[in-house]
């Protein structure tokens, strides 16, 4: 069937008769569903909604920063803009995005199960996300939030005049959504794998989500109790973090960053999992160093828990502790580097095609490299003295989160869109959009490295006039970046209804999810599959119709998915 | 991947009675120990809290192994518990490592820095 | 996903379902360990930096009541374990009996907690505007728990503590923040546990639990034992600071 779609003289592909989208109709069938695939789409809608909200705040920030003395917004309002941009993007977009959309949809398919271990808890986690989001939105319209997404005390607990309590409550509640999702994934991967699906036959996307789930389980409860204590302090006047009562703001920072640093690994590990799927598929070559990439996911999850105080180098913490944390920060870069080397080695000798998901994967490789290396600069105590709390940090984390995580998210969305909807997106428009996004992104954030190094502090509503050139470049880039985001939202939505029918395996890719119809039936597999093949094994999959010779896969002619 | 389910090994009521009696005895012990200034007997200023936490840990271990059947549970359960405890210890000890290695934290000298004098660090 | 008997649709076998449920509950308990761990860290740091205030605060707690509550909770763990045993061995009549005993012991715990909290409220020991650690020493007639001959000793103790720490009143609020925070969080978990026990009680009276399928009893048991373990640590941390003075 896949071969047929390539020769061009194929009979027209048809959508399967019954699949998860048309199995039941009506609002109730969606709002009370326990089907992991439908829940993934519920998350897609709500996460995209919050992405727009966060994007709106970003637009306000960049528009305001066009002029040095800040004509657009007052200082107080500007504080609210960057705070709410951060809170929305971190807690309501980046942390959920790949796990709750792609993870929910794909993990049961990839392990060969009919659903996740706890389908009702899966639905509950979506409702918890919505309730938490509602509280946070409420705080945004009743006074906003101006403490920075980091909620440092005693500003957040004592002095701020913004709606801190409902916002903190909203984030607290949403944390449970994260915990339940992680719990579901961990248990599913342990106990629901199909016969023959051993640990080392799992796709690396699953390994990445396993590592992510470990982080969610162990880290999120700590931010929950921290925000709970902060809320108690604000509402009831307890004093753990208030110096006036003998409390310690640095204690808050320790507790906060104990979660929030591993949280950034929650954001990036799933994206790395996506890249580990995209690169072998579009190089038609087995992933180089599967065991190392799997192990490095676990290593990142574990080592990521002992580096948090690198966010606190300038707080007056012990120098000895700072040295230890700096060393560990350098250590955590190693597994990420291992992955990057393995991806690159996979490309070598492969037959590379430049489909849109692969463009996003290439974008990831370059931009994550820049973001990761600048992270090492920040981990170095001497440099951090100079650039802490400047735009250098802002540029660093946007390179990782947008250049890395969002690229992975978009690449994954494009890659699995045919599986989720049964239809292909328009390829050439998608490539143009990816290019626009890449250009816009770099124009937005590269000048910020320069700004930070020159000394422009972050979270300031005004700046010295000599920095204006870079700020204008950054805002110009942001407007281009916005187009790069809007285009996929538009054409992916269009394609879901009117795109070309994709068939079971349009790319083609290995992986159990590509052996089901597109879109899959509600119970995923009619018969429980029995797995006997290794992952990414392009050489031993004649059913894919690829012209891959039996020795180490250098191919004479690239075979495209659907050109 | 089915291993021994803990329900296959059913712990007897006799064992439970032995455990609850041990727990009650340990509770009595910890209260009694609280009334004695243990630092008088050992050169360790924090002796009392150390002993209290030690006894509490023994009690918790008895509950985990027998009431929660972990002694008869698959290895994976034990691994999950170890991981949880390990992570808790990371949170506690690595944060304490900051406070404990500061030279002077609001007038309270942590044990590690007892012997460091201001003169050694004139600018800090 | 539809059920066939006790088996939920996403599972292949009853064995897989049981293994999954158990692993799920243990992972949830690990999240609870980290949750309580955060407030334990806050307690630890503040205890070290405001030791006198913490010692003072701990000594205002009633050791007999705290000790009694500890015994009550340990006993409830025993009855819960017996309830699980009854469900494992098919003694269906015993399950509701042991569950009821567990619930009753839980309510005894709540009762004692209420008495303790009410006492704190009366003695101006709730953190906030009205907090005053010297209230009982200055107004002995208003606090029933101070004996006249102990009054002089208490006064001397408080004076000594204030000398060591002039900000004792502010720092003592940190102790009570820890006290109410930790015991409050623990009590909240017990309330949820009691709710789950009532649910189990109702089902067990309908004979729903058999040796083949007693997973809910097992899982609620794990949760209840965990809540007991938290109290096993809270008791020495809150009630036994510097008691030898």
List key phrases describing it.
heterotrimer, A: 563 residues, mainly alpha, Cytochrome C Oxidase, Chain A, two-stranded antiparallel sheet, 17 helices, 2 strands, 64% helix, globular, disordered N terminus, B: 124 residues, flat
Count of alpha and pi helical runs of chain A: 17
Which chains have the largest interface?
Answer: B-C, 53 and 54 residues
- Name given to the CATH homologous superfamily of chain A: Cytochrome c oxidase-like, subunit I domain
Reported for the largest beta sheet of chain B, the result is: none
Contiguous uncertain segments of 5+ residues of chain A: 1-8, 553-563
Proportion in β-strands of chain B: under 5%
Arithmetic mean pLDDT of chain B: 83
Percent range for helical residues of chain A? 55-70%
> Order of strands in the sheet with the most strands of chain A?
1-2
Main pleated sheet of chain A: 2 strands, antiparallel
As a percent range, the share of strand residues of chain A is under 5%
Order of helices and strands of chain B: HHH
Task: Indicate the radius of gyration of chain B in whole angstroms.
Answer: 21 Å
Helix content of chain B: 55-70%
**Global shape of chain B:** flat
Structural class of chain A: mainly alpha
Question: Which ranges of chain B are low-confidence, i.e. pLDDT below 50, for 5 or more consecutive residues?
Answer: 1-7
CATH third-tier fold name of chain A? Cytochrome C Oxidase, Chain A
Helix count of chain B equals: 3
